[in-house]
Design goal:
Layout (H helix, E strand, L loop, with lengths): L1 H5 L5 E5 L5 E5 L4 H16 L2 E2 L2 E2 L4 E3 L8 H18 L4 E3 L1
Parallel strand pairs: 5-6
Antiparallel strand pairs: 1-2, 3-4
């Protein structure tokens, strides 16, 4: 969690959503800016090791629309994350 927190600016928030899942809420101006955030986190996490154990992170990414409520947003991003996990370690799937 500390690694994640170091990657964020004031307009971004990270909360634990499940055992190994976190929600990152960001008021970025573009999808490209969000992808840059995920790349920054990926780099920070990938250099962490404990002995021979290495870490990776996969991302599900979506944009909120004017028609979204919290449930539809979570459902869409959860689907993207599930797809990323199926693809393998260190993947990003945007929905």
């Amino acid at each position: 969690m500390k690694i994640l927190q170091k990657s964020f600016k004031n307009n971004e928030m990270c909360v634990r959503y499940g055992g190994d899942e976190f929600l990152i809420i960001s008021q970025t101006s573009s999808l490209e800016a969000s992808i840059n955030i995920t790349n920054k986190i990926q780099q920070s996490v990938s250099v962490q090791t404990i002995g021979s154990i290495t870490y990776s992170v996969s991302f599900g990414l979506t944009e909120m629309t004017v028609n979204d409520d919290w449930n539809s947003l979570i459902k869409r991003v959860d689907s993207a994350l599930y797809s990323a996990k199926e693809k393998g370690r260190g993947c990003l799937v945007q929905n």
